[in-house]
Amino acid sequence: MLCTAGMMLTGCGGRAETPAKTETAADEAAAAEQAAENEGTSTEAEDDTAAKEGNGSDGADENDTENVGKETSEEGMTLQEAQIRHYYGGVLSQITAGWQLPDGEMDLSTLNDGFGKMSDNRFAVTDIDGDGREELIVQYTNASMAGMFERIYDYDPGSGELKCEFLNFPALTYYSNGIIKAEWSHNQGRGEAWPYTVYRYDPESDSYVEVGSVDSWDKALSETWYEGQPFPDELDTDGDGTLFTIWEAGEEEDPYAYEKIKYNRADVDEWLGGYLAGAPEDAKEVFIDYQPLEHEAYADFTPAYLRMLAENANSGRTDTDEDLGLLILRDEEEHFLDAAKRLLTEKYDMILEQPDPDFEEYTVGKIGDSELFSFEHLNAGFLTYKGEKTGNVTIFGIYPGISVDGAWEKLKAYGFYASPYGEIENCLITGEGFGNISVVFDAEDGKVTSITVSPFCAFAG
Fold first, then answer.
1. Which domain holds residue 414?
2. Which tens digits make up the pLDDT trace of 350-385?
């Protein structure tokens, strides 16, 4: 399987085949605070005043979320809301590109046999449980009946934890008060009315708990119950030939005991209605805006978050027009490598050369006699900046000659953290799904000597 949209990349020396987690939330939370405080200047004296914590591997306090909810201009979202969607973008990338769940197995037999595609399945991002934080709903139906599911994921940016709040067969009715009516995958009873189980959202456990279940018996389908007992006509007070069994969660009594088959349709409606009743009005059915499970449907989740971080990190900077890293975040048709070439050629008279005539995807940029830049048009592209600082040219505020500590501090402000896939020391990413960015740099004597930046997706292959 390949990452779509041209992001078929590995980062910093390789990737894990079965990544267990899609983002590092603690680093992102810290990045939000750093973004608010970072002055963004390019002077080495200021860079050297920033102390890099833990050699920059994480440098985050999981409880430090003071500025994460700050309002920004990106479609009215707070930074925390954008961060949550950014994380869900990583989960969705893992599913769409890696055909993997973050917490379980998927039935891939139908897809492997060529019947349909991943986009036949659906997802939604919405606050379905009413806790004030958006959840990710994944509905997977392109599989055998036993392999179909609907999962509700919740990501807590404070703890950095992703949990599955709910898992069931994808025949669900959602209600506005946190109730879910879940129809069973099979009706193996003796009635045409489809059996179902009711669940309610429990804020304490941040998950859904079972309330009770309903099944039915139609006299027309079978005049006797499982024990051979006859249909109790005297209990069928509405005369429709159907009786129901209702059993509450936790009951020890056999739910299919003959004496429990005693409820009429109005009784069942009243039982379910009791869980939907409320003030000032009863709960209403919630209709989910599902999207196809494909990259295009969540393509802006991560870029939106990174743009918001950049807006904060750029505060006070006067050199952003010459920041080659920020070119990746621009929502424009021009590829960031082409934009970088144009900028450097027009402003610094850079001369492009092709060292190897058999490798036309690779060019170098010279300013005077110094080869300071290289451009590799493979996958989503790699740009390298090395040797010495050129004017105000930076990559997310860093440049050759900046201190290693200063480089880490500046990159953290833009959402970068230590890559779990890196085989070298100074390798950072902004996340693992589509739309993320990788920066790797070399250093000598505590100073950065070479920087390479590229779009990044951990699930490429």
1. 25-70+318-456
2. 999 999 988 999 999 999 999 999 999 998 999 999
Return all residues near 355 (Cβ < 8 A) that are at least 6 apart. Answer: 362, 363, 364
CB 84 within 8 A of CB 50: no
Residue 352 and residue 239 share a domain: no
With H, G, I as helix, E, B as strand and everything else as coil, classify residue 113.
coil
- Mean of all residue pLDDT scores within the chain: 86
Place of tokens 């790699």: 382
8 inside domain: no
Task: Name residue 431's beta-bridge partners.
Answer: none
Residue 397: phi and psi, rounded to 5, are: 85, -5
- Kindly report the three-state secondary structure assignment for every residue of 342-396: HHHHHHHCCEEECCCCCCCCEEEEEECCEEEEEEECCCCCEEEEECCCCCCCEEC
Q: If DSSP codes are grouped into helix, strand and coil, which group holds residue 49?
A: coil
Residue 43, judged by CB atoms within 10 A of its CB (0-12, 13-18, 19+), counts as exposed
Contact, 184 vs 169, CB < 8 A?
yes
147-159 mean pLDDT: 97
Please check whether residue 25 is in contact with residue 301, taking contact to mean a CB–CB distance below 8 angstroms: no
In a domain, 421, yes or no: yes
- Categorise residue 369: left if φ over 0, alpha if ψ from -120 to 50, beta otherwise: alpha
Six-digit token pair at 36?
């608010």
Q: What is the pLDDT of residues 46-102, one digit of tens each?
A: 444 333 333 332 333 333 333 444 455 556 789 999 999 999 999 999 999 999 999
Using the 3D structure, point to which of 239, 262, 283 is the last residue of a domain. Answer: 283
> Quick one: residue 267, left, alpha or beta (phi over 0 = left, psi -120 to 50 = alpha)?
alpha
**In angstroms, rounded to a whole number, what is the distance separating the alpha carbons of residues 401 and 407?**
10
C-alpha dihedral, 381 to 386 to 389 to 393, nearest 10°: 0
Query: Any idea what the Cα angle at residue 459 is, between residues 437 and 378, rounded to 5°?
Result: 60
Residue partners of 85: CB distance under 8 A and separation at least 6: 77, 125, 134, 298, 301, 304, 305
Give which of 451, 53, 83, 39 is closest to 302, Cα–Cα.
83
Beta bridge mates, 230: 224
Cis ω before 102 (30° cut-off from 0): no
Number of domains in the chain: 2
